[in-house]
Amino acid sequence: MSVVTYSLPPDAFRTLRPEPRRGGLRVWDVALTVVLLVLLPLAALVATSAGLLFTAAGDSCFLASCDLGLVNFGLWFAVIAPWAALVIGVTAAIVRLVRHRIAFWVPLLTVIGMVALWFVAAAIVGAGVSPR
């Protein structure tokens, strides 16, 4: 009987197969993310329009002393912040899609961030309008 020698032990052969792909392309995630990314600029436009309503906050400053610089800062923060959140959200979603990660939650989180930024702007404007 002859002795057969292997260059690799038989258990090592199963490691030579390619590893199965985890986290492959999920069609539903890509489709949902694209739809949400298309709707995201509309959410930014709505948030900007709501931020423009802060221009009426200066009307109460006729008789009271207000910090108009702070009101102006809050107004511009409310106008610009949704678009900055949009750029960050779109970039993060695209990066996650390219890396084959679930990305549909990124635009949803971006909308929640836009709402939070609007409330921050409202607090800034409210601080400027409050009497001293």
Compact description:
The chain is mainly alpha-helical and 132 residues long. The chain is built from three helices and no strands. The chain has one domain.
Q: What characteristics describe this protein?
A:
132 residues, mainly alpha
How would you characterize this protein structure?
The protein has one domain. The chain is built from three helices and no strands. It has helices at 27-52, 68-98, 105-129. Helix 1 (27-52) runs parallel beside helix 3. The N and C termini lie far apart (102 Å).
- Mean pLDDT across residues: 86
Query: Number of helix segments?
Result: 3
Uncertain regions spanning at least 5 consecutive residues: none
The ordered H/E elements are HHH
Total number of distinct structural domains:
1
The span between the termini is 102 Å
Name the structural class.
mainly alpha
Please describe the biggest sheet, giving its number of strands, its sense, and whether it closes into a barrel. Answer: none
Which percent band covers the strand fraction? under 5%
- Radius of gyration equals 27 Å
Helix content: 55-70%
Q: How many strands in all?
A: 0
* Envelope shape: elongated
